[in-house]
Write the structure tokens for this entry.
Amino acid sequence: MERVLFVICLITSALTSFAQASVEAKISPIEMMIGEQAQVTISVQADENAKVEFPTFKPRQELVPGVEVLDAQRSSDYTLTLILTSFDGNLYHLPPFKVKVNGKELKTADLALKVVEVEVDTTKMDQFYGPKDVQDVPFQWSDLSLSFWLSVLLLVLIALNYYLYLRLRDNKPIITHIKIVKRLLPHQKAMKEIEQIKADKMVSSENQKEYYTKLTDTLRRYIEERYGFSAMEMTSSEIIDRLMQTDQQSLDELRQLFMTADLVKFAKYSTMINENDANLVNAIDFINQTKQENQPTETVEKPQLSEADLRSQSERRVLKTVIWSLVAVSVALFGYVVYNVYQLLY
């Protein structure tokens, strides 16, 4: 008995929901001119979870003969909007739209659409312009010949310009990088090497030959960079004689240093530690007294290009010049042709 009552309740609820569902269609405007548009809105009143199935329409589909559907958009689950138009004047009867709600088919009310034609007063035909006869061209070939041939020349220049552009694109540019190299001044290099001699504790080393060799080589390189002559290839006396011509400062101590170094290296002369210290101090004093501080510490190194690279750069410059010249001439020709055609037409 309870199951029967439950089934009856379900059926009653379903019938109630069907009874509550309704469909409505509105059209706006109901009267329009030929070619204008009217909007039909189909709305459904049903439960929130009701399943609604609207009819489908394709663009340019005829709703009735003479009335076309331009667009159909479903703005919500319960609303469908149709855009209609017509190009024939008449009073059209729009049949009911069928909508399924929970599988049950519901129909809207009938609609009417009046399409009004544009009235033409046929008694005043002289006010309308009829078809025209074939008209003669208001200008001759001689008027157009110059513009025509200039247009042909313009096309040739454009083609040539494009060909040169392809040549320029294939001829890759040579990218050269200018390097700015920071360098130490001659006295800075020499003092750095002397600091290394100190750090190696060569002053007190038993290998005096190595100590004096490094010390004199440091001074030779400094003199060579400072005064600009090949001190590395000269003897000690030749270096002193050459320095006598350019600088008189600290040469006695320098002469004594080179003499001691020659004795140590070639005569196996043995020196004391204090003598080694004194010669090191003399070397530092000579560098400090003859150094030039106001010298550039950066040098610009430019890469050397081969003859093929130079020719390639020259070709690129020529191609760029020709291309831009052709562009300028083409723009001028185009403007002239447009101006001539404008003068002929207007």
Notes: The chain has three domains: 21-116, 139-174+309-346, 184-295.
